[in-house]
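To assess whether ligand presence alters the predicted conformation, the chain was also submitted together with acetyl coenzyme *A. Input:
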Amino acid sequence: NFGVAITGSGSAVPTNFLSNEVLTQLVETSDEWIATRTGIRSRRLATANDSLQAIATQASLQAIAMAGIAPTDIDLIILATSTPDDLFGSACQIQAALGATQAVAFDMTAACSGFVFGLVTAAQYIRTGVYQNILLIGADILSRWVDWEDRRTCVLFGDGAGAVVMQASKRDRLLGFELKSDGTQNRCLNLAYQPQVQALVNDIDVAKGNYQPITMNGKEVYRFAVQRVPEVIDKALFRANLKVDQIDWLLLHQANQRILDAVADRLHIPHHKVISNLAHYGNTSAASIPLALDEAVRADKIKDGDIIAASGFGAGLTWGAAIFSW
Ligand code: ACO
């Protein structure tokens, strides 16, 4: 049996800032409303010159350097994203940019749970001995799909990318996990295809179309997260044979500070163990966990051997937790 370890991390965001103040010029809102309801003060915004591939590649290069491997050592690249540059997938574009010539590469979509789902997926390839070196990326440019006239959603999201290198290791550092989906709640959060019927010939129609901007029932998503996230963390802890007070860091999808606080309170985890960077980045979807992880690692907050409880939650609906040691 082969164990799994995360041996490198990296992150990258577009250079453009969008502050709450500037948002007040777009929609009827205020810095005070956004900050007290969400904890968000600013977010990064991709321009037409930015691409998902570029920020994901930048984050990946940092993770690869920290792991001390070469791009050609990578066996598999998994890109967790809902916003690829190309609907056919962006993982291969990143593979080319990295020169990771030996890697097979594919995209994976599980919205804001994408990084945790990807972590567990990647671990299976390592545990079965199929691959030794995997690059897992969580990256999203949700600003492409935001309705900038909808104040209920446009204040929440930001753009970014995070990456980790996962390697085969004698000691298995993925201690437990639990993943869940509930498609009956799909309508809570969507970025849905909107068909527009176009007559081809005679009585043959095709559905050409585009994607609708993000729609969300904020209250439902809030309730879902606060209830379901503690449940999956409990289950993953049980699988890891650990108790909640053994967690050093609670690393949740950075959606909303009130969700972070409420989940910590439900689990009786003190707030100083909660990693939070959403004031600066907003909700960056699949990027939020690896982005926050990388910042905490580089700030020397997370130390060798620390136990991290990570949980992603979002559209699908999907949610999941992974307990791992650094
Ligand atoms: N500025 C000012 N007022 C606003 C804004 C805004 N940006 N947005 C909504 N309001 C108004 C509403 O119109 C409403 O006014 P009304 O009472 O006159 O109708 C009032 O503020 C209260 O609105 P609520 O929706 O009840 O506000 P709530 O306290 O629920 O906060 C929020 C909204 C922040 C979206 C909250 O529901 C939330 O955080 N939900 C979770 C959302 C989330 O995390 N989604 C992402 C997770 S999944 C993923 O990452 C893809």
